[in-house]
């Protein structure tokens, strides 16, 4: 009888709501085990200096590989991780994994800059700077090999927690980049409060370089502003030679995108490096 009542309850939901709710429940309960069961992987997408197309770094991007081989993209499970608080242990794992790989690259003679993404949730809780210091020390990685990417919304947060954390990271020598720059808030006042090393020009403006929209004008404005504020620029989502050429003419410093390399498992990235002479100047 209890079983029948359970079945009957489902009829209060519409089919779509029911499907979305059950997908979410599936994600929640399985994400809890993904970390413990080693189902998370950090893939690496190469980043290049426009000048000479020299490999200078990589962005670590999270992947969830299920035991049945299916891959769940971060866009699907990061929001669930943020809502459930699981982003704390997952984010800490990403930080440790990035440092472990950076150390391995150093040992192989490749001092590359490894960037990872931080969620706003990670910055609003105490202890992030301590965890960064812990992992750098655990793997003996110099702070200058690590870059943290945050979105504009994080920097709009005027709390002492966020500014205190950034001050400490800055003191340690960790680099800070603003991800998806230009898609968030219209106020740039936070650029006065936080010293930022790099602006990552959002892919939408890169696409706009060649599709006849105003994306090119926006990319140009971002590059000009970054230059006068002594920040570097990296264009995301560069897929064509035409886009690369346009960005080079505008004076963009670095690029990342399918044109020069997709995100790949670490072992593939090591093989990728072997095909591109990485130079010791990569990290200053
Ligand atoms: P993001 O940090 O802006 O990362 C760039 C996204 O663009 C990645 O998607 C990458 O695979 C994709 N991409 C790179 N080059 C190209 C290109 O040429 N064309 C196109 N169409 N796409 C390109 P991905 O890996 O699915 O990640 C999506 C987002 O998930 C990331 O956006 C980031 O916000 C978030 N994310 C990924 N890993 C982590 C993580 O470890 N922690 C947190 N908090 N968020 C993460
Ligand atoms: Mg990113
Ligand atoms: Mg981005
Ligand atoms: Mg993004």
From TrEMBL:
Domain of life: Bacteria
EAL domain segment(s): 24-277
Record's subcellular location: Cell membrane
Protein's name in the database: EAL domain-containing protein
């Amino acid at each position: 009888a209890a079983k029948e009542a359970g079945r009957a309850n489902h009829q209060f939901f519409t089919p779509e709501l029911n499907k979305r709710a059950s997908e979410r429940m599936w994600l929640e309960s399985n994400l809890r085990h993904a970390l413990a069961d080693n189902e998370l992987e950090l893939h690496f997408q190469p980043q290049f200096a426009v000048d000479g197309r020299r490999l200078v770094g990589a962005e670590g991007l999270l992947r969830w590989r299920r035991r049945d081989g299916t891959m769940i993209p971060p866009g699907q499970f990061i929001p669930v991780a943020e809502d459930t608080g699981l982003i704390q242990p997952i984010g800490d794992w990403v930080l440790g994994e990035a440092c472990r790989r950076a150390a391995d690259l150093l040992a192989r003679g490749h001092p590359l800059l490894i960037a990872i993404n931080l969620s706003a949730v990670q910055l609003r809780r105490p202890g992030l700077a301590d965890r960064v210091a812990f992992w750098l020390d655990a793997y003996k990685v110099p702070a200058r090999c690590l870059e943290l990417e945050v979105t504009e919304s994080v920097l709009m947060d005027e709390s002492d927690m966020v500014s205190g954390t950034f001050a400490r990271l800055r003191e340690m020598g960790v680099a800070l980049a603003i991800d998806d720059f230009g898609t968030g808030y219209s106020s740039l006042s936070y650029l006065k409060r936080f010293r930022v090393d790099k602006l990552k020009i959002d892919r939408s403006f890169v696409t706009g370089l060649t599709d006849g929209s105003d994306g090119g004008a926006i990319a140009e404005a971002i590059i000009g502003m970054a230059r006068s504020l002594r920040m570097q620029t990296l264009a995301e989502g560069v897929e064509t030679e035409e886009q690369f050429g346009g960005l080079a003419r505008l004076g963009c410093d670095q690029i990342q995108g399918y044109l020069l390399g997709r995100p790949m498992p670490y072992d593939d990235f090591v093989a990728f490096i072997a095909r591109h002479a990485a130079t010791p100047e990569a990290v200053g």
